[in-house]
Design brief:
single chain, 298 residues, alpha/beta, TIM Barrel, 12 helices, 46% helix, globular
């Protein structure tokens, strides 16, 4: 399964909610998916952490997954977020999941428990064995409280044919380089930090799973394509034009910032579910101003 490629720009899709009872706004979700697809992204990540899946009911998650699959209708690969800190419960969820239209899963490292590296190895081996589709590891120690060390990633890459890549969001470029230098053929290293994507592409990474691409799918996809070709002359201006927004959308957490930005673009109604709350007025104003600056550059 190592031949299956997730190269280029993946979008960590947000979930629009309505103001009334905070129900899923499927009309806005459909419009956002069309906006993303027509702007040239390479794949979509459904029900990842950016989607606020942790605050949805099981029935809502199933409905959102089904809707995304139907709306995408085979035009792009879909990677499904499926992770947890209870390995048995996660493998049971995988067994009960409908994988029609799903090309792979993105599985975040076990959070809160803070397992050691042996525990992480055992967890992902169980996930890989349970999953009928390829698995991409997601390392984001800032959220999980545990870092997947390069040697752990490389062990999984070499021992588990069903583990095809890692979304690396540790913010540690030296760690990413160790994986890139020693990875087996076909193992994808995907940036999990928008702002570090171009540096990682220059080092040999295969793309990004991006938050900013919800709002700037065309610009991010173009930058990644140029970066993959080694065309820094054209990639760098795009990188630096987006960088202020890339940084600002995370100032009050994710997806707080990206939802405020999408509302400024008229794409969604800015509603989040507790414990997340809307961006502060100063941040919303800052995002609107930065968006105007970016538009003026184009």
């Amino acid at each position: 399964m190592k031949q299956l490629s997730f190269t280029g720009t993946g979008v960590a899709l947000i979930t629009p909610f309505r103001r009334q009872q905070e129900t899923v706004d499927f009309t806005k979700l459909e419009a956002l998916i069309e906006h993303i697809i027509t702007s040239g992204v390479d794949y979509i990540v459904a029900l990842g952490t950016t989607s606020e899946a942790a605050t949805m009911t099981l029935s809502e998650r199933a409905a959102v997954q089904e809707f995304i699959v139907e709306t995408v209708s085979g035009r792009l690969p879909i990677m499904l977020g499926l992770g947890g800190n209870n390995t048995l419960a996660l493998t049971d969820t995988i067994a009960r999941t409908n994988f029609d239209g799903i090309s792979a899963i993105l599985s975040v490292a076990p959070f809160y428990n803070k397992p050691n590296q042996r525990g992480i190895l055992a967890h992902y081996r169980a996930v890989a064995e349970a999953s009928p589709v390829p698995v991409v590891i997601y390392n984001v120690p800032g959220r999980t409280g545990v870092n997947i060390l390069p040697e752990t990633t490389l062990t999984l890459a070499n021992e588990c044919p069903n583990i095809i890549g890692i979304k690396e969001a540790s913010g540690n470029i030296a760690q990413a380089m160790e994986i890139l230098r020693n990875r087996p053929d076909g193992f994808r290293v995907i940036s999990g930090d928008d702002a570090l994507t171009l540096p990682l592409l220059a080092l040999g990474a295969d793309g990004v799973i991006s938050v900013i691409a919800n709002a700037l799918p065309k610009e991010m996809s173009q930058m990644v394509r140029f970066g993959l070709k080694g065309d820094l002359k054209r990639a760098l201006p795009l990188h630096y034009s987006m960088l202020p927004l890339m940084n600002a959308i995370f100032e009050e957490g994710n997806p707080t910032g990206i939802k405020a930005l999408l509302e400024a673009q008229g794409l969604i109604t800015n509603v989040l579910r507790l414990p997340l709350v809307k961006a502060s007025k100063p941040l919303a104003n800052k995002l609107t101003s930065l968006l105007a600056d970016l538009n003026n550059q184009q």
